[in-house]
Structure formats: C-alpha cells, structure tokens
Amino acid sequence: MAKKQNTEETIDSLLEKISNEDLKGFLKEQMDNNELLKQTFLTNFAHLNSGQPQKIYNKQIKSVLNAAKDRGGFINWSAARFVGSAVGNIVNTAYKQVQDGNVKSAAFICFAVMEEMVKALQFADDSGGDIGGNIDSAFSLLTDISKSNPPEDIRSFLFDECLKHFRDNSFEGWNWHLGMLGTASTLVKNEGEADKVISLLDQFIVSDKKGYSLNEAQKIKYFTLRNGKDIKKAEDFLEENLQNPMLRKIAIQDSIASENFKRASQLSLEGIEIDAKSWPGRALEWYDWLLQISILQNDKPEIISHARHLFIHSFYNRQEYYEVLKKYVPKKEWNSFVENLVSDIRGKGPGLDFDHIANVYITEKLWDRLFGLLAEAPALSRVEHMEQYLAEKYSAQLAELYEPLIIEFLKEARDRKDYRVGCRYLKRMLKLGARERVNKLIEKIRETYPNRRALQDELRLVK
Asked: Closest Cα partner for 311 from 333, 329, 287?
C-alpha cells in the first residue's frame, strides 16, 4: 500500500511540474501508438464536442469496436468489457447533453450507440451484458426524451428517425425494433402521424404472430390512436382486443378510474377464466385486481376471499396479502382463521410448502407449531435457519435434530470442503449446549470413517 501511495505522489508531483504543452505532446504521441488509449480519451471527453453530428459518433463507436477485435474480427468477453465501459462513457455524454439542453445531440448519440452496438452483437461475446446494456441505456434515454414534451423540431426529428429505423429494420430481431414504434407513438400529435405509425404496426401484426410481440404491438396501436386524438377508434380497438392481457389491464384501469367497479370486476373475472389453466401466474394478477377493486368498495368478505387466495397461491407480495387479511379478519376469528389458512396451504398441492407455513408461524410467534413443522421435515439448512427462533426454548431438541442429519451428510461427503461443512454443524450443536452429545457423535464418526484422514483432522478442530 505504501508503495502505491508513493507512486501516486510521484505522478502528482510530475503533473505539477510538466507544462501543458509537454503534457499535450506526450498524450498525442501515446494516442498515436495506442488505439485503446485514444478511444478512451475521446469517449471520456466527448461531451466537449456538443455540436458533433451523428456520423461522428458512429465513427467513434466503430473505432472502439475495431480496437477491441481480435485477429479474427471477434470481440471476446474480456474485450467486450472494455467496449461496454468506453461506449458507456459515450452514453453518459448523452445524459450530460440533455442536462445542458442539447437534446438533439443526445439523440444523435443514442441512435449511434444503438446502430453500432446492435451490429456488434453479431461479432461479440456479450454474455456479460456490456453491449446490450448500453443499447438499453441509449434506448431508455431516447424514450425519456420523447416523453419530455421536447420542442417541435426535436419532436419531429425523433418521430421521423424512429420510423426510419423501423422501416430500415435497423434493430430487426430485437425488442428495440418494435420499440422504435413505441417511442414514435409517444410523439404522435395528429391523425396523420398516427396513421403512419398504425400502418407500420398493422404490417408488423400481420407478419409477427409471437405472443408478447403481438400484444405489445396492439398496445402501441391503442396508445397511438389515443395520442392521435381518435378516442372512439381507440376505445373500439380496446374492446375488440381484450384477449390481449396488456389491453385488458388498461380496460380495468379505465373502469376503475370511472368508478365502474362492476365492469372492472367482470373484466378481471374473465381474465381469470381465460388464464387459469394456461397462465396461472397471470390469473393471479387478475385476482390482485379483484382485491384492489374490493378494497376500493370496502367489501370486506370479498377482500378476505381474494387476499386469502392470493396469499395461499402467489409467490410474490405474500406479506402484503397477509397484512390485508390481518386487517380485515375480525380479531376474535383470527386464530381459527390462521389454522384454516395453514390447512389450505398444506392442501394446495403435492409436497410440503415449508417456508410458506413457517413464515406464518414466525409472524404469529407460534414457536411450538414451528418446531413441530421443523421436526416434520428437518434439513440441515432449515434447522440452522430456525435456530434464531427456537434455540432459547428448544436447544436440546434442535441438537437432537442435527445429529442424524450430520451423520447422513457425512455418508455422502467426499472431500475436505464437505467435511468442514459437517464439522460446522457439529459446532452449532456445541453452541446449543449439547457437549456430551457432540463428543459421542464425534467418537462414532471416527470409528465409522477411520481412513478418512482429512475428516479426522477436521474433527480435531471441533471445540
């Protein structure tokens, strides 16, 4: 560490002494012989060239990519990290341009990054996401600019560029392709512009039958109609395409906003009927809408029914649903409600949903029930995790649960790493106060595996 500090001090001292002209000359000379250094310099100070047209940025990004290619023209994983960092600096420049009010320059940068980096995906190892991540960042900034109500000349420019890139298939095969029409949709100001976007969307919808892409295209078409001021056509299109879950969600939101709760509930129930078998996860989203609707109406029986279903069957937001239940179930009925809730969790499918039930017992501080559940399905990691709740009252019983599990674990253990894991659990037994049980267990293990020298060594460390 001291050596590093001395080197840094030496560099600082030299920088103080070297003239600007000498420093510039040295830097230019080094960049002439080091393409990576040159591109790093250009990307770090690109924001000082606010007037650069897009082709300058395209050229700069190409230089970064060329510098990173190997002899075969491929960018390996390590080089892709350099590319990600260098182009990331260019994207950061775009953000600075927005802050400085140079929105068009920022748009130039974003389009350049997307164009060149999408091409790079064909000859680079992007397993680390360095290239795709920059495309996402550039596209996200373009979207933000489009939604910021930019000046008319910028709005018109962005609208035309998005349509151009879609027609040219610049990002064909990637989500950014359809994303161009999504961005253009937010920029629509009149029916004429809406017609241009819709014409391209209709062509896409006919040619692309993929579920998500089709749904997204229909969603964009709906908002394009609305932004183009043809509200009647937008509403008709929405009603005609409720099989699209994105549009069904919009219809539910619109119904809730107009306080048409009956319609909102009907749409949610239809969604459940459609998706219950094929898309159970999506069906739970419709149940969540029913819960929100029932809360808005203060319909307590419906609130309890929907929250109960969601708590039992959902993998997400369980604690939120549990809190809803605790709020609306009468206190005098709560204990029996919890028992029935656990019973329903046990009966929802094959196998024991240990964590789900355990969390109920932990929340309610039902330690006897929690230990019973643990004894029903013991595992080393589970016993260890439950110590924090049960050790004070059940230390001896936890040590007893550990013993056969450790014995079984060591049967399959094959190396020192495994032996250390087994011995770590022996030490946990010691912390539970089971010294005598541990001593006997160690002796038994020694006798069972006399030829496992590494295990014998690790057992000596259990103190």
From this structure: 287
Residue 124 DSSP SS3: strand
Residue among 120, 170, 123 at smallest CA distance from 142: 170
The alpha carbons of the chain give a radius of gyration, in whole angstroms, of 32
pLDDT tens per residue, range 122-169: 999 999 999 999 999 999 999 999 999 999 999 999 999 999 999 999
Q: Report the distance separating Cα 410 and Cα 169, nearest Å.
A: 59
Q: Which residue's structure tokens are 């700069």?
A: 60
Q: What is the pLDDT of residues 30-58, one digit of tens each?
A: 888 876 677 667 655 655 655 557 888 89
Cα–Cα distance for residue pair 417/200, rounded to 1 Å: 60
> Tokens 């059940």 correspond to what residue?
394
The contacts of residue 444 (CB under 8 Å, 6+ apart) are: 407
Tokens 């048409």 correspond to 260
Whole-structure pTM value: 0.79
3-state helix, strand, coil in the chain (%, to 5): 80, 0, 20
Write the DSSP symbol of residue 47. G
Say what angle helices 380-412 and 354-363 make with each other, to 10 degrees.
140
**H, E, C per residue of 360-403:** HHHHCCCHHHHHHHHHHCCCHHHHHHHHHHHHHHHHHHHHHHHH
In whole angstroms, what is the distance from residue 118 CA to residue 123 CA? 10
Report CA-CA distances (Å) from 145 to 56, 57, 95, 188, 197. 21, 19, 10, 14, 19
**CA-CA distance, 329 to 304, in Å (whole number)?**
7
The phi-psi region of residue 53 (left if phi > 0; otherwise alpha if psi is between -120 and 50; otherwise beta) is beta
SS3 173: coil
Cβ-proximal residues to 93 (8 Å cutoff; 6+ apart), any chain: 43, 46, 47, 109
Whole-number Å distance between alpha carbons of 307 and 301 = 10
